[in-house]
Amino acid sequence: MAIQQSDVLYTAVATAENGRDGRVATDDGQLDVVVNPPKAMGGSGAGTNPEQLFAAGYSACFQGALGVVARNENADISGSTVTAEVGIGKNDDGFGIIVKIVASIPNVDAATAQDLVEKAHQVCPYSKATRGNITVDLSVA
């Protein structure tokens, strides 16, 4: 379900110059990075790229969702990590992305970890935004 504008608590604002071969900066100055295509896509790889930025945001958001779920389940996720792998490749429409989320939750058994990850995927705003649009593979390390 979409949120209404009146329900927005925070809005991030970023501006890109020259697309994938330029610069991206936020209005508050907290992020200001050079972006370049990765070497695998024929670029210099001298800067970050949109896929890395998406992976960083998704992994942080998913870790937050995992924390919410863990509190509700009284599960100990201390020492846990979430890694997001974002791939880009050609598809029927030009290009698309695919995501793999890998969670390491050392203080719970494998079945509990998998359950927590599945539940986090249901509440994570990035997961909600991408649901039905891209493939997101979930796994537990």
TrEMBL record:
Give the UniProt family note.
Belongs to the OsmC/Ohr family.
Q: Which GO terms describe its biological process?
A: response to oxidative stress
InterPro entries, per the entry? KH_dom-like_a/b, OHR, OsmC/Ohr_fam, OsmC/Ohrsf
Its domain of life reads Bacteria
Q: What is this protein called?
A: Organic hydroperoxide resistance protein
Q: Which residues form a coiled coil?
A: none
